[in-house]
Design goal:
150 residues, four-stranded antiparallel β-sheet
Length: 150
């Protein structure tokens, strides 16, 4: 991941991506993309249409990425569980990132499980970053203790 590009690159994901919360499968997609950015594990974005009905609810807050633009936050619901501001998307992404418009990323550490091609991901350390770590990704990773100044 240290050879990932800057500015980031969006690429298609070949295998299925799933998200579980509250003991339920709330998203399953074969149309996911991932964003690759220097020093970050990939962030996976799933089409909103591939989430279960009612799984995504508008939440307060926003953030800004110098590359992708302004993100809005979403609460994620599954079964009896609700995770506040556990997902985000870019309703009006910057040029070059238009493919993220109707897609959502989630913080894996707030879900029961997230998988990529059948492999359960490890969430990127820290509360700010949303990367998903698979066996194909080698660290060290931003977000771990002592990595703030990288």
């Amino acid at each position: 991941m240290w050879d990932y590009p800057r500015p980031p690159r969006v690429e298609s994901v070949a295998g299925p991506v799933t998200i579980r919360l509250g003991g339920r499968l709330i998203a399953e997609s074969r149309d996911a993309v991932r964003v690759l950015e220097t020093s970050h594990p990939p962030v996976y974005y799933i089409p909103m249409a591939d989430f279960a009905e009612g799984a995504l609810v508008d939440a307060a807050g926003s953030s800004f990425c110098e590359f992708k633009g302004t993100a809005r936050y979403l609460d994620v619901r599954g079964g009896d569980e609700v995770r506040s501001a556990a997902a985000w998307n870019y309703p009006h992404p910057s040029p070059g990132f238009e493919s993220l418009r109707d897609r959502v990323a989630v913080y894996a550490q707030q879900m029961d499980a997230c998988t990529v091609d059948g492999e359960v991901v490890t969430p990127q350390p820290g509360r700010f970053y949303g990367g998903w770590i698979t066996s194909a990704v080698v660290g060290p990773f931003k977000g771990a203790p002592g990595s703030l100044g990288w």
